[in-house]
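Appendix B. Chain record.
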Amino acid sequence: MGLFNRRSQESANTVATLDVDPALAALTGEYVIDAAHSSIGFTVRHAMVTNVRGSFTDYSGTLRLDGGDPARSAASIEVKIASVDTGIADRDGHLRSGDFFDAEAFPLMTFRSTEAAQLGGDAYRITGELTIKDVTRPLSIDLEFNGSATDVYGNERVGFEGSAEILRSDWGLTWNAALEAGGVMVSDKVKLTFDISAIKQA
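Structure tokens predicted for this chain:
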């Protein structure tokens, strides 16, 4: 179910018209991310042989959806760096330290969208600015629209899941250690994952 579909009508002059599904147009509005039913995670290669996965557990965000014209949609997310969780307390402490995020000096990671586009069907791409440690660089996130529903409490929800890849060094996260056999302890490439449930505001 795409947020909109285009239909071409042939006449003396061929004109492309916007065919908006009323049910999808009804999704237009302001939404708040429900962190209790969402996740923001990451995966990074460790010691060249395995993946370490983690997440951020404290964040907030808003979505502005336009069911008739997705290009007018927008997103904003704030993540508290101190909430990083890989399941190992010592590793989490290292990530919060000056070697990596320096959470005391730079407590927030933020994303602000600047552009949204439908790639086809339920696939979308949202582009914006990701800020980590006061370094702001562009980021594009590929998303899949998972649909909408009204939960048992009467909340209107939408769901998206997606991913992106970054080079952490682009944001000043450069700590590493060389391995005796060659290579490094932590890869530069990091995969970000998003599984978002958001509630429509009255």
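Further analysis of this model is presented in Appendix C.
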